[in-house]
Write a structure and sequence with these properties.
Length: about 350
């Protein structure tokens, strides 16, 4: 009845008022939704930025700045030649080199010093990236709860060649420090004469060195002829060493390190070939043993075990070399990528 009494103008005005109220409500609703959407977009953008920063941190090459390499060098395996090369490269490749000096030239540490050594190397961040070298047995850092363990490398030599070289080194020294008087200076007996009279200096048990160096600090590692020690040395070579080369193929050892780890070894191969470092230290007056002496030594248990480790390392080294230096087309063109990443 009321609507019938209204003029058309009033009816139109009421309709307009209703429409305006409706539109206002819709605008308010849309503004609220827009604000919610805007807030959500801002949050997503913020999360994406955080993720990108996180990814950059993960993949940044700065991780290479935290690497530590330990070269627990076996005596008379061309270790001085190799370490000389490492010192030559340290400035241009921006890493530190440190010699591990143990009291009385001992090859193993007490348990207390093992813990101290492992923690010190792991936590000494200002010196990283770092290359440590010294005549010491392998030490497994995982034993002390350290997650980021160092990379180990080493060089082995044919056991009898190493033994003979060390025998003459103790008497005549080398061309690295020719005027230094050695412990056995004045003893002019040849290695053959020493073996024939059974002198302690040339006791084949003295060859027991490369096995314990790779075996580690367990007392059993240093028991001459211990079969477990040989197997443990093999296991450590496979599990804990980045690379174990051989003296007889030192150039290839350097070349592989340059390919695999240029952060430390960029330019190493060229420097090794052209800077007269390949024979930096040579034992003076070394005489090759007679065939009968070689035959006698090679019949011993220690030589057979040391030679088994050497051949094991050589086979492993050749397998690595085959796929890097003498690579097939398939290996040389090998790449890897990531795909099918979920959630998107």
């Amino acid at each position: 009845m009321l609507i019938r009494n209204l003029t058309p103008q009033w009816i139109l005005m009421l309709i307009l008022i209703v429409i305006i109220l409706y539109l206002k409500l819709r605008i308010n609703f849309l503004e609220e939704n827009y604000q919610s959407l805007h807030d959500a977009v801002v949050q997503i953008q913020s999360e994406l930025k955080d993720n990108i920063k996180s990814d950059v941190r993960i993949h940044k090459p700065k991780n290479y700045e935290e690497f530590v390499i330990i070269y627990n060098r076996v005596p008379k395996t061309a270790s001085t030649s190799f370490v000389g090369l490492v010192y030559d490269l340290c400035k241009q490749n921006k890493y530190h080199v440190l010699h591990i000096n143990i009291t009385n030239n001992m090859h193993t540490l007490t348990l207390f010093n093992q813990m101290q050594f492992a923690n010190n190397i792991s936590e000494w961040n200002t010196i990283k990236p770092a290359f440590y070298h010294g005549h010491m047995a392998f030490l497994n850092f995982e034993k002390f709860g350290i997650k980021q363990t160092p990379l180990y490398i080493n060089i082995l030599r044919k056991p009898l060649d190493r033994f003979v070289s060390y025998y003459y080194f103790l008497r005549y020294g080398d061309n690295f420090r020719p005027h230094l008087i050695r412990r056995k200076h004045g003893d002019t007996k040849t290695f053959d004469e020493c073996v024939s009279i059974g002198q302690p200096d040339c006791d084949p048990n003295n060859m027991w060195l490369q096995i314990p160096f790779l075996c580690g600090h367990d007392p059993a590692c240093w028991e001459v002829g211990n079969k477990w020690a040989l197997e443990e040395a093999k296991r450590n070579l496979q599990r804990h060493y980045l690379l174990v080369g051989v003296t007889e193929e030192l150039a290839e050892f350097v070349q592989i390190l340059q390919i695999v780890f240029p952060r430390f070894f960029k330019g190493a191969y060229e420097s090794f070939l052209h800077n007269n470092k390949s024979h930096l230290r040579q034992t003076t007056q070394k005489i090759d043993p007679l065939p009968e002496t070689v035959e006698k030594i090679q019949k011993t248990v220690v030589w057979k075990m040391e030679n088994e480790l050497y051949n094991f390392a050589l086979t492993h080294f050749h397998a690595v070399k085959k796929r890097l230096i003498n690579a097939s087309i398939q290996d040389s063109n090998q790449r890897f990528m990531y795909e099918k990443i979920r959630p998107k």
